[in-house]
Fold each of these.
Amino acid sequence: MTKGRASAPAKIILFGEHFVVYGNPAILATIDRRITVTAKKAKDGKVKIKSDIASGEFDGSTFRLIEGANARATLEPLYFAAKHSLDARKQKGGLEIEIKSDIPYGVGLGSSAASLVATIAAVESLLGRADKKKVCESAIEAEKIIHKNSSGADCYVSTFGGMINYSKGGGYKKIEAKGKLFLVIGDTGIKHNTGELVSSVRKLKEANQMAFSGMMSQAKDMCAQALTAIDNGNTDHLGMLMNESQLLLERLGVSHEKADELIEVAKSAGAVGAKITGAGGAAR
Ligand code: MEV
């Protein structure tokens, strides 16, 4: 094969973000925004990665910037994942990787997980065959470079698609909604840093073990109730659970005044519930 091509979707987290890092369940779903990656072999042994936000070339431990602020940090996880695929097949050659995305990045829609999943799947199909389980595992490993305590939830949903009930040790189960769930996704446009937000929650957990374990139980219970509400098509109850889940996320300190404003706008326009999705507000 001369070209490997793959795409992966963005995601939302309906319930359980942050708590999923500590073993709780979470409910996630993919949305119709995608990242598409094309991979070609290069003879020179270098790995060149081009995307809309950053481009550069890796030659062993040397990095040549082509363009983009923070390009090396943005591209490094993708490089390590691609290199892992090359090394696993004892391939000495290089790669040319091109990334096209219609997922807004850094706003909680899983753009980094989707870019890893699509890159690994494109490289794997270029070199042989892309096995979803292997793609997902490799994406989780690479995501740990971005934030070392990744739960793996974003990579799972982006690899396997649909709506899922995920937990760290327990893998995932597909969820079938009874009837249609209508969701509106708003973007505050404020960029966040997932790693810093996950660390800020860890600090809060370490400082307030008892309170945090109470929040874990509440979040777990909400997730179980949400599964039943989805199963029964009970959207009013689902909306109420979203509001409760938002209150917990506010207690974790991961909401943001702009997100709070959007939530109020959504509710006054008739939404049965509203919450942030993903890591949350801008890292402080
Ligand atoms: C980020 O999309 C979701 C978090 O729960 C982190 C994780 O699951 O690794 C905040």
Note: Residues 194-268 form one domain.
Amino acid sequence: MINPLRGMKDLTFEESERFEHIINTASTIAKRYGYGYIETPILEETALFKRSVGESSDIVGKEMYQFIDKGENDVCMRPEGTAGVVRAFISAKLDRQPVKQKFYYYGPMFRYEKPQKGRLREFHQFGCESFGEGSVYEDFTIITMIAQIFNALGIGYELQINSLGCKICMPKYKETLVSSLTEIKEELCEDCNRRIGTNPIRVLDCKNDTCQTLLVESPKLKNYLCEECDPDFKKLKELLDQEGIKYTVNDNLVRGLDYYSKTAFEFVSSEIGAQSAIAGGGRYDRLVEFLDGKPTPAVGFALGIERIMELVKMPEKEAEGYYMGAMTPEAIPSLLKLATKKRLTDKVTVEYSSKGFKSHMKGVDRSNAQYAVLIGEDELKNGTLWIKDLETKEERVIAINEL
Ligand code: HAM
């Protein structure tokens, strides 16, 4: 027997219904906010992710599904969606147009991580990317949209926010941070020591308890924000307060991808174990430029579908459509003809084996239909059918073409 690969899984029956419900709910809400659907390839040039997600990130450093294809191209299965959408935005020369563009997408992402509960090697994201709007109002609007999606799915969350500064304030902060980290270098873990040289702000979200204790005294980015970033972050907090969206400011929230600046945020759930982030995102005003496009401010997020599937409250299933069955085999062709016609507008389940009334009624229960339609010998002779409304319990015999 061949099984799926480690960290990958099939979605069937009840699970796939949850999956679809999340995608449908999120897409409907994203469209209300002006987002249009975009589909980009799963396979991209490896250089795309190195230059966007960043060489120093765990994703690029350790987790890429990277290989050389038959044409000697260095390619990679996408570990996330933003890089591909930015590449598509530039490929279509949308960076040369004055119009603001908003895209939503969903699909599989691949990271060669150590699988555990809530952490897969193939997982799915729903994401949104907004291009051309540099105002913090857009950051607020995106956070509000995610909150609305979670509310619609019946999911509780905690929101954490931070500001990562911009090209003006970040370098000054990094310099101060590096000299403070160098003083405690000996006591920090191996990963942190490496990061001091590659990407020092990633030291802040080290999961090692000793490192975290040592970091309490380290300089905080919020005290270094520039004349633009500081008031923007204050404005974001005021708007969230006004909207009644609760949040905590997490000074150590730096995100695991290198492209962020200014607003960064994460939605976490306390109900799904250690892998608690259910959505993450932020502003990435310099990424379009890094990938050779015209400088364009941008902000976005992605939801982790599998983690949300654990939490989502599914709406009650309402009875719908028709169950059609025959009590004599000769009636089946008539039922099939009727079903094809009815399926232009309604859900129809047809039972192909002819059987007695009682067994059909069991089938009706399983199908969750609103109407049961049966044709027996008498009905076939008379060109009629027996129909029962399972809600009102009303039963009738009517001409076939009356249905
Ligand atoms: P991310 O935080 O790496 O951000 O991923 C977003 C979400 O994907 C996470 O919050 C989590 O729910 C889910 N996720 C990540 N890794 C796994 C995994 N191994 N197994 C299951 N679920 C996982 C990004 O990917 C950015 N592209 C988000 C973004 C869009 N920022 C701006 N625009």
Note: The mean pLDDT is 96.
